[in-house]
Records
---
Amino acid sequence: PVPPGVNLACKPGAQTGNRILPLKLTKLLRYSILSRDFPVMSTKRDRSMRLTTKGRYAVTALLDLAIHADTGPVNLADISQRQGISLSYLEQLFAKLRRCELVSSIRGPGGGYRLGKKPHAIRIAHIIDAVNESVDATKCQGKGNCQQGETCLTHHLWEDLSQQIHDFLGSISLADLINKSEIKRIAAQQDQRQELLLQPELDGARIAATFLQ
């Protein structure tokens, strides 16, 4: 359907009654049609189905904590170094995780963080929810105003998909991830690299060889 008041037959220089439609106005109308009245044709990237950095970092950091839980309280600085996440960002995430009792903090020398629950009791969906993150497949963020303020034809399809994704993340625990062989291998490599970085007397060639594994 053509938006009211827009004549698609008009082209730059074409006659519209006794007036000529200016080129700039034509471009403006074309932009209006493509980007606002017909959002499905917009060239902007749709990020609605992507888990943002906040959610990914929270899961990564808590998995790192779970892997190293046997060594005692884990320092955020160590997680920061192993996972390449800024310390200040981790502090913000762990404040939210602590409020949801997914972690507990130990103060004083040798302090750090521990898991607030057993690894099998912490689901990935719990972590995502704790940092106020969501995986939403709808274009309207679940508001139901997808098409000119009203619910679009496929809204409930994408809403069901969002629930399926959340249920999937709710079916996986930290314990499930810890027991995966590929995760054990990657964690071992990260620990080895961190250990080498803390030994400045080691030659650069040995450190480089470890990072290239």
---
Amino acid sequence: MTESMLQSLMKLFALLASINVEATRIFSRNFVESYLKGQFSPKLVEKSLVIFDQFLEELSSVRRHDSKKRITLLSVKILMICDEINRELHLKSKFLILLSIIQFSKHFEAHSELGAEFRAAMTDAVNTIADALMINAAEYMNCKSFLTERFFKVPDRSSLLVVSGMHSFRFSGIKHYRKEGLKGQFFFLKIDQADLYIFYYNGNELLEIGGKSVFPNHIYIFPKGSAIKSDTISPIYKLH
């Protein structure tokens, strides 16, 4: 992810965090910091957090309005940033931003103290971002279900691939590849519009991709030519 993409993402994070004035700065910042540390160098993490903090501070006047006015003002700002993204970034980059936004909203919506009105506003905001970035509606729903629900809830099951050590697989319409000796399961989603694969792992194997560790239930991009490696199994290459 380029610095330009990160700057846009930090602004969108700040806008989403501002939807609910009761959501603490620490709560939102903790997610952003954790998200950044999992992917980028300490220097880039620090730089991105400064952008997030500054933009969140700039939005303080917006957060003083009542809920309806606040959401309207934030929606306008969201559309402005999405317009900038559309002018500067290609489709794959826009999907990477959207995937991060979905994870951010999931983090907030899971917070038990935030009410139904906030969750609905957050969902509407993410839908607005997806639409403004000109993301195919079906692909968006696949991504959203893959990141926020069980894998078999993805509307287009033909876009899924499960890799496991199991001899049998009980989910119809979902491709399954048996990997001898694998403990746990890999879940892959193909995003046709962006020619992109994402995945997560459920298990306790020590794995890595591109020299970085793969942690359970974290979302990863599977770049072309890459391989998931372990001392206990042969490499897993991109599967079609």
---
Amino acid sequence: TNWEVVGFDDNAVVNVTDLVTETLNASCGGSTTLGGSSSAVSVDGCIGDETITLAGDAVVTGDIEAAGGDDTITVSGNASVLGDINVANDGQDGSAADDLGNTVVVDTTGSVGSITGGDNTENVTLLAGTVGDIDTGAGDDAVVWSGGTTTGITTGDGSDTLTITAAAYDGSQALDGGDDLSGGDGFV
């Protein structure tokens, strides 16, 4: 089915398969899974604590914006996000200022263009797949890179934790902890 904008009731648990849409507005405070051979230009969260999952062969050709709240975004199966997973952008309701921190898990045979965090705690786990830059922004962030590839990781100001066990790490990837000078001010 082809739609321009698809949205769901607040706090709903929704599983969508083989949907083609321009914009998917995730269930505020709920769980939204885009699976099968679905395609969306953008997926937008809101002020609630959402769970957004891409599975199967789903593709987001633009960005995922999680917006406010404490959100969890998972990219699994063979799913891909060609743009950015931005956990601190405005989403469907302009609630970026109400962002509380987020979790992003990438465990796909597909790819993610980039991951961008905000000023709160971000937890990013790269298990499989190809990710461009990971930039968690300021805040006390944690990044675990145990599989897949990335071009670089920037954690910004804050007391950050970076764990790398991925075989793909060869020293050529950029690793930057912001302007931190010691463990007391967020040394990576």
---
Amino acid sequence: MEGPAAAAAPAQGPGGPSLSRSASDAPAHRSSRATHDVLVIGCGIVGASCAWHLASRGLRVVVLEREAGPAMGSTGRSAAGVRVQFTSEANIRLSLHSLPVYRAFRERHGVDVGYRALGYLLLVPPERWEAHLQAVALQRELGAPVQVLTPAEAARRVPLETAGLAGATLGPWDGIIDPHLATMAWVGMARAAGAEFRFSHPVGTLERRAGLWRASPGGAGAVGPDGGARGVDVLR
């Protein structure tokens, strides 16, 4: 459950600790009710980043995650490649927004998230070269630093057989990050900004009640009011 489902207006939910001691601690039952502006479902890298960006702007944020800790779904299983060499404008723009964040993460936030600018060298056969160059033109138009290389130039960078290649492109910003370090960095900063995290807290249903959205627990691992996951009222 690693994609955010965020709602942005006053919200109410049952109280409970934010698991500041350990990601695997289950929240204890309390009878008090806390108010939230935003609910984020899922604590992968996207959900954790959303939590910090929202909490740092003064919103009261609660994050619900069905697993026992952050980055235990697709984030933790990913190859964690980051690149600007895409063919769609949306993906290029997203990368141009996010890659500079990771490139400067240590300087901005004092945390190493494992960003390494290894560069992606894409090798392209003749039948795909024209379409590939059209994608490069879009990348450059949007501001992506992409280099076009001949097969011989590519071979000088990486030993390879040039037969059957029309050319290659290199994205010098492209590389990798550590998905666990990055997610935990967002989580730590979000908590410092006041966000609350509830792990082992699956969401089964979302329904509207009396002007609020209510997230109810459900699915494998769901537990009752004395054991952890409970319903959360969210947002108008």
